[in-house]
Structure formats: C-alpha cells, structure tokens
Amino acid sequence: MADTLTPDGAKTAKGGASWIEGGSHRPLTLDDPARAYIVRRGHYDVFATEGGRRHHLFRSETGDLLCGVAPVGGFALVAVGSLDSAAEPVGLDAAADATGIERWVAGLSQAATEPSTDRPKRAVAPGSVTLADGER
Question: Which of 26, 30, 61, 64 has its Cα between 20 and 30 A from that of 101?
Fold first, then answer.
C-alpha cells in the first residue's frame, strides 16, 4: 500500500498512521499543550516566535518529540521541517513514553540557559552587499 495525501496535507502512511508533511511552507505551530508530534522523517528546527520574528532554539531529529507549549509573554513555539520532513500527531500518553522527550527537554533547557547565538541584526538593501564564499 502506498502513502496517500489528504487535502489538509496529512499523509496516511502504511499501517494507517497519519503524518503531516513538513517543510518551510508548512510550519507546525506548537501552541497547544494537549498536542504532540513525533518526527518521523527529516528534522524540524524549533523557534521561539515573537511578533513574527523567529529565534532559533534547537533542532529535533527523526524519532524526537515536538510538544505543544502554551504561549507565554508574547512568545510561542513553531517547528519548521526540512525538505521532505514529516511528523506524526500523537496523544499525550504516547508522548510520555517517547524516548524523544529527553531531547525535547534538553533542547529547551539548553536554549533557556545558554547565551543567545543570534547574529547582530542589520538591515541591508537587496544587492547592496556581496558575501565571500562561505560567509553568512
């Protein structure tokens, strides 16, 4: 049996599990504490968002857990999948048993305790700056 896509972007995998296709065009909003996802393919970068700006926190790999967290102080969490990524919605009972929860807690803890690695922000006009090979 082949995987099939539903109109909402969920994919029913072999065995009937429903996966949500990822990618930069399809971020997962992690704002509901009653929802969780297991990364089934690829990876997801987890960001704290405030006023539309994203602050990278950590990366979740295949098998890791993504948990919903109630927004606090104007911040919310969003997970953006890699090309060809997918996540499976799971109940909280399954999330409690997932081995990926350790990496979720470690990622949040590390992001909360380490100094920000965000680069200084500067506005530039398109085409006004040329970067050398390997420069970001």
Answer: 26
